[in-house]
Structures are given as C-alpha cells and as structure tokens.
C-alpha cells in the first residue's frame, strides 16, 4: 500500500522564504494577527489527519467504490469514508478559511490551499466531498440572500451539511447555454425545478445529514443561450424555519457513473422532479454566480493534480531506492548486492526529477496564486484588490490545465519507475494515474482552459494583465541580471519571457484575420505560458537555494539540483510548442471533414 508523508519542509520554504506570506498577510485587516507558528501548527496537524486517517482508506476506497440502493436512491460511500468525515468535522477542518460570521476560523485561503493539497495526496476521491462543499459555500457567500446565508452557510462551514454544483446535462457539457432544466415560480417565492444533471461529484452519499445542491436552470421567460440561466439552491432535505430538516425534496440519485478513476467519490446522475429551490442572485444571471464556484473548483483541480504528483513521486522514490535491477552502465554502484538500485539509472532519475520539479514548481505557483486571492478578498485598497483579481483570473486556467497536464505526465512516469509492478493495484501507482486523468477533463477541459486563457484573459484585454505579470518577471530578471551565479536561470527566464511576448503578438494578429487561429494555437500557447510561470518560480527558488546551500542543510542542495534539472530538461519543451503554435490553422483544417 502506498504511503504519504506531508511535505511540510517544502511548504514552509514556499510560505516563509519564497513568498514571505506572513508579512504580506499581516497587511490585510482580516489577517493582521496571523503568524508563522500558527500556520505551521495548523499544517502539521492537517498533515497528520491526511497521512494517518485518509491515506489508509484510499486504496480500499478505490477498490470498493460507492454503492447505490436503487430502491431508496441512497448512496453509501466506501468503508471508512463516513468515519473519516466525522473526524474531519470534529477537528473543525471545514471551517478553516470560512468567514467567522458563520462559524469559520477566518484563516487565509493560502493555508486552506496547503491543507487541501495534503488531503488530495492522501485521498483525492474522499477530499472531493468537502471540496465541493467549500465551493458551494463560496458561491452562496458571494451571491446568496441574507436568508440563504443564515440558513446554509453555518451548516456548510461546520461540515454538518455538504454541497454540490449541478451544471452538466446529458446533452451538454461545457456549453451550458444548451441546458434544459426548468424552474417554475411558485406563489410563495420558491421555485419547482425539473431536469436531469450528470457527472455530479459528491452528488449523493451518507457522509452528512443534508446535501445542498446549487443547480442551474431556466425560468419560463428565460432568453436562449447562456444569458438565460439562473442559479438555485436545492437542498436534499428542505429546511424548516427553525433550521431543522423537513421533508425529503424530490432531488435524487438516478445512477452512479462507472468511471476510470476516483471510484471512492459518488459521481451521480441527479434527477430533479419538481424539487423546491430558491433563487440565488438575479434571474438569468446564474452563470455569473456559479462562476465563483467554478473558478474555485478550477483552482481545486490544480490542487488535486499537485497532490497526486507529490504522492506519486514520494512512492516512486522509495521504490527506486529499494528495487535492484541491472548494473549502472559506468560500473557497479552497489557491489555488495547482485544488482544496483534502479535509482542509479539516468532515465529513472529523469522520471523522478520530472515529477519532483512539477510538484515543487506547482506548489510554488499555486501558493503564489492563493496569496493573490487572499489579497483580492481582503485588501482595503481597491486598486490592489482589482490588480490581484485580474492576476488570479489570468493564472486560474494555467493552474488548472498546466498542473493537471503535468500530473498526468508525472504519475505516468512514476508508475513506469515500478516497471510491471506499476500496473498492480496493491502498489497504488496505477490508481494515481487513473485519478489524475480525470483532472484534465472536468471543470472545463484543458482545451477550454486554453481558450479561456488566450482568447478571454489575454487577447480579450490586449494582453494588459499578461504585461503586468510579465513586468514582475522583468523586474526580477533586471535585479538578478548581474549575478554570475544566477545566469543559468536568468538567461532562459528572460528568453522565454521575450518569446511569449512575440508569440502572443503573432497569434493576436492572426486571430484578427481569423478567430479560429486562437483555437489552433491555444493548447500549445497555454503550455508555453505555464512554463513561463514555472520558470519564474524556479528562478526565484534557485536564488534562495544558492544563498543558503553552503549552510549545511541538504534541502537547499536538493532544491538547487531540481532547479537546474527543470531549466535543462523541462523548459526546453517550449521550443517545439512555440513551433507548433506558429504552424497555425491550415494543417488542422485543410483536409475535408468527409475524408476523416
């Protein structure tokens, strides 16, 4: 069975040395009292919960899966999941970054981010139950009525109730403008909602006493397309005026998806048969309200992928040090053994270092983004809030798509390290691969994220937000440009920055003539910009490692070696990506569709 050790040392490095997070957070009124010891203590305890409670039920949960009683429409989660959730609630973990007004602890998003990374490493399928709840909390916190907030937020904050988001329907996925679910107004101000939703993560289970569904549907007078979508809160059990549970609402699980991965999470087909709900936000403006939850989910998917990358790496390293196979090409490295540990072989090293570089680079970028989100939510400076909101919007599709692409690569590499044992369930590696693959698809496929980045977030404002982010990189390049020791990092960082600027301009000019050029280049383009972000993070981490590597702490020696690997072996991928992005539309579209 795979093991998991929370990477607390690297988390502390990112928080306290790379980002100086406490100094930044103390400037925000909501976090003026935060300190390093508090953050470290929370993460240490969170790590124990992840490794000691969630890891032991990950493999078994994958094997058992969820069970649907077709008579009652009730779903039972795998053995141990309900008990683990009770411990999670008892420990106060759902409330970590929630508003104190509703019973939350008010800690920064950044701290919650690291907590979720550890839980995702330990058990992604289980972590999706509270993860969806947190997204529902955020959507209602931003757009709910005072009555909705007082009814639902304390229960979601405590974890006594969980939440979902019900978007997708059998005939439409990302294109929500096609959805058909209907909402009929009632005399008492409520609505009766009818329709069918599919692929609803954590849609039905036995972990909590009530499930709060956020449902997209159309009012009778709704215009066609995405401008005619409204958002409703639909509880599994209706809630009485005193807050107690009332009658069962006709919203139920019609089936469970039999899927490639995350077997421990109930991916449900949800049927609404005149279910009672209340409107969230303004009529026909539901997509705007739901985007709060969708954007949170996209950052969450990046976090899931980061967690899987880390745990796959950890286990592959242990195996590579223990498994003996062949001799090193340069001669025996363990002459006292019949063969050498496979970690001596260069390609095994390459696979391990790829996973390590993707994990540590992803952790740095995700934490950086979470810190900007904290500023966007809590700064008392309107200009700073707006700048941080824009930067988070720019980085969100990169976090989701680039880190999940990397996780697919990394978990596949780590499974390969095991050779034939990698395919065997008991080692756990093939589960990490299966679980990671869905992350590239749901919450908007990675192609959709690429279109969002290039079309909306960059070309949509003539590259203004990208230029602001690029200015930060340029300032760092200028500061370190005279340091001889930093040249191996600064020169390629400056180079990829220049190339992104040129590529963006070139694609923008092509798209002005034919918008389909955006679709032709977007996926390659996002990966190039993802590497720009990682190169920036890795150059900053390399600077710190260079300054401290002679102090006797092997952590910095390893950090510097990983930085060098990233720049030498992974960043050069951008050369081929830029070339294929520039190849444009014609190679994709010139063949008549009848010839396919």
Short description:
This protein has 596 residues and is α+β, with helices and mostly antiparallel strands.
Structural account:
With 596 residues, this protein is of the alpha+beta class. It has helices at 8-18, 21-26, 36-54, 58-64, 81-90, 109-143, 146-158, 286-322, 346-378, 382-417, 429-438, 446-458, 464-480, 487-513, 516-548, 554-570, 573-582, 586-589; strands at residues 67-69, 74-76, 161-166, 182-185, 191-201, 210-217, 230-235, 237-239, 245-248, 251-256, 267-280. The strands form three sheets. Strands 3, 4, 5, 6, 7, 10 and 11 form a seven-stranded mixed sheet that branches. Strands 1-2 form a two-stranded antiparallel ribbon. The longest helix has 37 residues, at 286-322. It starts with 7 loop residues before the first helix and ends in a 7-residue tail after the last helix. The model has no long low-confidence stretch (mean pLDDT 96).
Average pLDDT: 96
Helix segment count? Answer: 18
Report the sheet with the most strands, covering strand number, pairing sense and barrel closure: 7 strands, mixed
* Number of β-strand runs: 11
Shape estimate: globular
Portion in helices: 55-70%
Question: Segments where pLDDT lies below 50 for 5+ residues?
Answer: none
Structural class call reads: alpha+beta
């Amino acid at each position: 069975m795979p093991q998991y050790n929370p990477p607390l040392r690297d988390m502390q490095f990112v928080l306290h040395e790379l980002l100086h997070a406490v100094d930044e957070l103390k400037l925000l009124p909501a976090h003026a009292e935060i300190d390093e010891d508090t953050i470290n203590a929370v993460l240490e305890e969170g790590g124990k919960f992840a490794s000691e409670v969630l890891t032991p039920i990950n493999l078994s949960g994958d094997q058992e899966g969820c069970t649907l009683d077709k008579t009652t429409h009730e779903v039972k989660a795998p053995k141990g999941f309900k008990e683990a959730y009770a411990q999670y609630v008892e420990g106060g973990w759902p409330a970590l970054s929630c508003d104190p007004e509703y019973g939350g602890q008010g800690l920064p998003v950044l701290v919650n981010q690291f907590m979720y990374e550890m839980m995702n490493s330990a058990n992604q399928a289980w972590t999706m139950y509270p993860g969806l709840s947190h997204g529902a909390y955020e959507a209602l916190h931003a757009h709910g009525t005072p009555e909705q907030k007082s009814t639902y937020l304390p229960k979601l904050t405590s974890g006594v109730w969980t939440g979902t988001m019900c978007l997708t329907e059998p005939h439409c996925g990302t294109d929500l403008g096609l959805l058909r679910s209907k909402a009929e107004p009632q005399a008492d101000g409520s609505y009766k909602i009818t329709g069918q939703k599919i692929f609803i993560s954590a849609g039905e289970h036995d972990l909590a006493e009530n499930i709060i569904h956020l449902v997209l549907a159309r009012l009778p007078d709704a215009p066609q397309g995405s401008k005619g979508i409204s958002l409703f809160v639909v509880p599994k059990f209706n809630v009485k005026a005193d807050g107690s549970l009332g009658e069962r609402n006709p919203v139920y699980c019609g089936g469970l998806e039999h899927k490639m991965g995350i077997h421990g999470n109930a991916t449900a087909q949800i049927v609404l048969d005149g279910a009672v709900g209340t409107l969230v936000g303004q009529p026909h403006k539901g997509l705007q309200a739901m985007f709060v939850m969708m954007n949170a989910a996209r950052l969450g998917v990046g976090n899931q992928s980061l967690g899987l990358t880390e745990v796959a790496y950890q286990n592959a390293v242990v195996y590579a040090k223990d498994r003996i196979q062949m001799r090193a090409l340069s001669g025996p490295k363990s002459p006292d053994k019949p063969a050498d540990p496979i970690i001596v072989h260069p390609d095994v090293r390459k696979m391990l270092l790829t996973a390590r570089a993707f994990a540590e680079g992803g952790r740095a970028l995700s934490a950086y983004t979470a810190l900007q989100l904290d500023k966007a939510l809590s700064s008392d400076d309107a200009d700073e809030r707006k700048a941080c909101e824009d930067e988070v919007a720019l980085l969100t599709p990169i976090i989701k798509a680039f880190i999940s692409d990397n996780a697919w690569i990394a978990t596949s590499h780590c499974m390969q390290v095991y050779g034939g044992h990698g395919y065997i369930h008991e080692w756990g590696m093939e589960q990490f691969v299966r679980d990671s693959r869905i992350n590239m698809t749901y919450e908007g496929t990675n192609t959709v994220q690429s279109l969002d980045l290039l079309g909306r977030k960059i070309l949509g404002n003539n590259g203004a937000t990208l230029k602001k982010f690029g200015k930060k990189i340029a300032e760092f390049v200028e500061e370190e440009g005279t340091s001889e020791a930093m040249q191996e990092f600064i020169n390629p960082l400056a180079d990829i920055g220049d190339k992104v600027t040129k590529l963006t301009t070139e694609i923008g000019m092509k798209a002005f003539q034919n918008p389909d050029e955006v679709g032709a280049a977007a996926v390659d383009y996002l990966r190039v910009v993802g590497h720009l972000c990682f190169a920036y993070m890795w150059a900053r981490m390399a600077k710190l490692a260079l300054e401290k590597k002679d102090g006797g702490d092997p952590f910095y020696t390893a950090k510097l070696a990983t930085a060098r690997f990233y720049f030498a072996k992974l960043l050069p991928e951008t050369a081929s990506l830029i070339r294929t992005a520039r190849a444009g539309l014609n190679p994709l579209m010139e063949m008549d569709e009848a010839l396919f």
